[in-house]
Amino acid sequence: MDVEAAPKVDRTVLNSQAKQADEAEHQETAWQAIRNHRRAVFWALVVSLCVIMEGYDTILLGNFMAYPAFARQFGSYDAADKTWQVSAPWQAGIGDSSGIGAFLGALLNGFLVDRFGQKRVLLGALVALTAFLFIVFFSTNVTTLLVGELFCGFPWGIFATLSPAYASEVLPLKLRVYMTSWTNMCFITGQLIAAGVMAGLVDNPTKWSYKIPFAIQWFWPCVLVPILCFAPESPWYLVRKGRIEEARHSLTRLHGAGDDAEAAAARIDTTLALIIHTDNQEKEQLKVQTSYWQCFQGTERWRTEIACVCFMGQYFVGMAFAYNSTYFFQQVGLGTNQIYDLNVGGNALALFASYLSWLFVLPYFGRRTIYLWSTALMFVILMLIGILNVKTGEHQIGMAQAVLTLVWTVVFQLSVGQLGWALPAEIGSTRLRQKTVVLARNAYYLVSVVVGVLEPYFINPTAWNLRGYTGFVWAGTCFFTFIWAYFRLPETKDRSYEEINLLFAKGIAARDFANYQVDVFDPEDEKPTVLELSTV
């Protein structure tokens, strides 16, 4: 790959400009940031729309298990219950196949982005998904469906790991948590669309009742590919490659909006200086390279642990059981139409709760505080669902359990659902950001495979048939997630990437992050020496 000749920059000038950008980011309000960086907001929003497809498919397959036409095509007749059922092993296999593909796709993404950049990788993944969807659409048996989902998982894994990393790189400090958690809202939007489509087709007795939902997935690549051809590349990626003028041009496209052209140009210069300063800090002081192996060395190991557990935590707090739980609703005695109406309502509540999180939770409370209080509350809700199962078989009890899952959904999307996407994108060092997000999302996929195997056995009447008692199982994992967060999850709200780097480098305890004062522009580091901008 061709790389520009690395220019030489005076450290004093560089640090002075970087300090200006750092102070401006800390002083800027969220509304000012939206006004000053509206182009960057737009592109972060558009790139994250790719995740809608993964969210759509996630709820699609999980809820098809209680879908009459799908069960007749891909399942077998259960004489005991007098219903058509996809067996627990095939439920697990189909449900896990896309997760396995996504795991491999995400892992591959860590290498592809380093070589080709985020834009080209994203476009390639969209084109690949368009082709793989043909396998799913024309499948007539569970084996073909499993293979199709496996291949579709590759681009979905790329979308899920590339989108939050791109958002964290193109946006300023005050918007970082909003746009990285926007990825989660796109995921929910996909689930809501799928829930609405399935509720509308549940009474259709033909094969089109499940083929139409599959076909709708072609819509997104057709819309997004033409738009994303014009997306700017991440300036952080370009700086890491030594392509400084290209990074400046990218920043102009991302942050050049504003009433005052001169002020916008000055902002671009200082922002570029801050990116270079941070990159140099990680290369020279922290000795950070760009390999997967370094994610498990020194303080990077703790940062990788946080990213992974925050993403896995979405399952540990009970997501597979209490979120989009149509199959659970069926097993506690609710009718088919009632089930899918509740499913649509649950997804609408999830999206509404995510917006409430933006307005009333994330701006006022720290990441650590939100995570701790929410896991404690979800633990209580899961325990109540399990306790109610003592009087099983009554319609009122089943409805009460269903309502509690909706309450759980609101709490989840106010907190862990949002932070599970936001924290991995901001906790790793900038040079390892993409790989940290990949490892975190892959940890999530690994847990999803295990959970995907276990959950059908917990609920399925032909297997362990625990019904609401499953709440006790996930209450236990939720409790251990709370304990981990108390001792290991630091506070990163309103911290720049430079500050986060130094706090980890100093070995500050997680509980002390919020109040610890750190100066990333120590005068001793501002010597007037010449700095060589080396390539990776």
How far apart the termini lie comes to 11 Å
Oligomer: single chain
List low-confidence stretches: 1-7, 524-536
CA-based gyration radius: 24 Å
Element-by-element helix/strand order: EHHHHHEEHHHHHHHHHHHHHHHHHHHE
- Could you tell me the CATH topology label: Growth Hormone, Chain: A
Please state how the strands of the largest beta sheet are arranged side by side.
1-4
Instruction: Please give the count of helices.
Output: 24
Q: What's the number of extended β-strand segments?
A: 4
**What is the molecular shape?**
globular
Structural class: mainly alpha
Major sheet details: 2 strands, antiparallel
In CATH, the homologous superfamily goes by the name: MFS general substrate transporter like domains
What does this structure look like?
A hairpin with a 4-residue loop joins strand 2 (76-78) and strand 3 (83-85). Residues 1-7 and 524-536 have low confidence and may be disordered. This protein is mainly α. Helix 1 crosses helix 14 and helix 15 (298-316) runs antiparallel to helix 23. The protein has a single domain, classed as MFS general substrate transporter like domains (Growth Hormone, Chain: A, Up-down Bundle), CATH 1.20.1250. It is globular and about 80 Å long. The strands form two sheets. The protein has a two-stranded antiparallel ribbon. Strands 2-3 form a two-stranded antiparallel sheet. It is 72% helix and 2% strand. It has 24 helices and four strands. Keywords: Membrane, Transmembrane, Transmembrane helix, Transport. It comes from Penicilliopsis zonata CBS 506.65.
